[in-house]
From TrEMBL, chain A:
Coiled coil: none annotated. Keywords: DNA damage, DNA recombination, DNA repair, Metal-binding, Zinc, Zinc-finger. May play a role in DNA repair. It seems to be involved in an RecBC-independent recombinational process of DNA repair. It may act with RecF and RecO. PANTHER family: RECOMBINATION PROTEIN RECR. The gene is recR. A zinc finger (C4-type) spans 61-76. The keyword Heme does not apply. This is Recombination protein RecR. One of its GO terms (molecular function) is DNA binding. Belongs to the RecR family. Residues 84-179 form the Toprim domain. It comes from the Bacteria.
UniProtKB/TrEMBL annotation, chain B:
Pfam families: RecO_C (PF02565), RecO_N (PF11967). One of its GO terms (cellular component) is bacterial nucleoid. InterPro entries: ARFGAP/RecO, DNA_rep/recomb_RecO_N, NA-bd_OB-fold, RecO, RecO_C. HAMAP family: RecO. Residues 5-78 form the DNA replication/recombination mediator RecO N-terminal domain. It comes from Stieleria bergensis. NCBIfam families: reco. This is DNA repair protein RecO. Involved in DNA repair and RecF pathway recombination. SUPFAM superfamilies: ArfGap/RecO-like zinc finger, Nucleic acid-binding proteins. Keywords: DNA damage, DNA recombination, DNA repair. GO terms for biological process: DNA recombination; double-strand break repair. Belongs to the RecO family. It comes from the Bacteria.
């Protein structure tokens, strides 16, 4: 009986821990816990080891604050990358999305968030100071603000452009407007306004 | 439950699960509403990326009778807030509006006049209007619409008439100016100049829409700082805390950049 209680306690503990993950409710957590009891031990330990490794080995790149296991991430170490163009993103996952597009060959800087005064997040809590240092000491000709196209993302880009205004770099923002493949008839007026504002010479 | 439609301003969004958002809206017909917008972060959702802070949109809601969150089924963007395209002053002004609406209004308590005032203030702030004056006007009119008008001519405690030609004690806790006798029993009283009170009266006077008339704006201009401080302290007492964005408010009423 005591063993059974101990066993139930361990399962219940695992369910509680899994419940704390984003998007995992109690039912899903129970399903995952019982799955881990069913699979071979090695498989369950591999998961535990992967979780342990991600916490002990993964940290932020010293230059760009992307996630990496060495001092510098693979992008910062790559000599083929264009070291004169810097793309500023909010989170490492945004960097991954841009990398998947294969349209950018420069280097990145991850802010690790966006300025959101309503949530108590100010410039000091982001990696803005290292960014300014990087632009001051680097050979960049262009800094691309690739923060999210939201009010807070735009606000962060505006703040950064004020901070970087004194340096001889071109400050640019990601384009926005009508999606390629759609038609003007069904685009809302804000999309059309954005597209017109950001129109390009042919 | 039947779906209901209204126009709304987005006050706050929180990411929820993979693609959903929990959205706090200030609707014209139902007051403040917090609802879940399932799949709102997917690019091809029925929300068309309209659920951004301070965006004005037409929304369709399914209201829940229990404590559960209302369900937002559709949002069509009418107008996006573009303060961040212009200046940090205008952006912070927008943030301040969102915070004040969230703190001052109640859930499911419609305030259509306050909603209309909010749209006026937004168009002043992210347009070419004077952001500092628009925020001052918004605060004063919003306080009046919500029944928090500070007294300016009679003691807020005992009701005796006060003299307008000299500086008078003002007690945010009592709800306005106080007479010499009542002053002693009030906490955190400060002295207000007659001109400051006159400006406050002008702001509170009858209007429910922005921009303020040019004559009022000119009168307020010289006393902006004093009126701003007075309203800030009064609002702090009403809310029981200092709004986060209060320290970002414009210090002067010069034309916003």
């Amino acid at each position: 009986m005591k063993d059974q209680e101990k066993h139930a306690g361990a399962v219940s503990n695992l369910v509680d821990q899994l419940c704390r993950l984003p998007g995992v409710g109690r039912k899903s957590a129970e399903r995952l816990a019982f799955h881990l009891l069913r699979v071979p031990e090695s498989e369950a330990y591999a998961l535990a080891d992967a979780i342990r490794r991600i916490r002990s080995d993964v940290h932020y790149c010293k230059a760009c604050f992307n996630l990496c296991e060495d001092e510098l991430c693979s992008i910062c170490q790559d000599p083929q990358r264009d070291q004169t163009r810097l793309c500023v993103v909010e989170q490492p996952r945004d960097l991954m999305s841009l990398e998947q597009s294969q349209a950018f060959s420069g280097v990145y800087h991850v802010l690790l968030g966006r300025i959101a005064p309503l949530d108590g997040i100010g410039p000091d809590q982001l990696t803005i100071e290292p960014l300014v240092d990087r632009v001051r000491t680097g050979n960049f000709v262009e800094v691309i603000m690739a923060t999210n196209p939201t009010v807070e993302g735009d606000g962060t880009a505006l703040y950064l452009s004020n901070q970087l205004a004194e340096y001889p770099v071109q400050l640019t923002r990601l384009a926005r407007g009508i999606t390629a493949g759609s038609v003007l008839e069904y685009a809302n007026r804000e999309m059309i306004a954005d597209a017109l504002t950001g129109r390009q010479a042919l | 439950m039947a779906a209901e439609s209204s126009v709304a301003v987005v006050l706050k969004t929180i990411e929820f699960s993979e693609t959903s958002l929990i959205v706090t809206l200030f609707t014209r017909d139902f007051g403040q509403v917090t609802a879940i917008a399932k799949g709102a972060r997917r690019p091809k959702s029925s929300f068309e990326g309209s659920l951004d802070l301070l965006a004005v949109c037409r929304v369709v809601l399914i209201r829940k009778a229990s404590d559960a969150l209302d369900l937002l089924t559709e949002a069509k963007l009418n107008r996006r807030f573009r303060g961040a395209d212009k200046s940090l002053t205008r952006l912070h002004g927008g943030y301040y509006l969102a915070e004040m609406l969230r703190l001052l209004t109640e859930t499911h308590d419609p305030q259509p006049m306050l909603y209309d005032l909010t749209l006026d203030a937004l168009s002043q702030i992210d347009g070419t209007g004077n952001a500092a004056l628009a925020l001052l006007g918004f605060d004063a009119i919003a306080l009046r619409l919500l029944g928090h008008t500070p007294t300016t001519r009679t003691c807020a405690d005992c009701g005796v008439a006060t003299q307008l030609d000299r500086s008078v004690p003002f007690s945010p806790a009592a709800g306005g100016v106080v007479c010499g006798s009542c002053r002693i029993s009030q906490p955190s009283v400060f002295i207000v100049r007659p001109k400051t009170l006159q400006c406050l009266e002008r702001l509170l006077d009858n209007q429910t829409r922005l921009p303020l008339a040019t004559a009022s704006a000119n009168k307020i201009d010289a006393n902006y700082r004093d009126v701003r401080v007075l309203l800030n302290r009064y609002i702090e007492v009403i809310l029981g805390k200092t709004p986060r964005m209060q320290s970002f408010l414009p210090a002067r009423m010069e034309p916003s950049e």
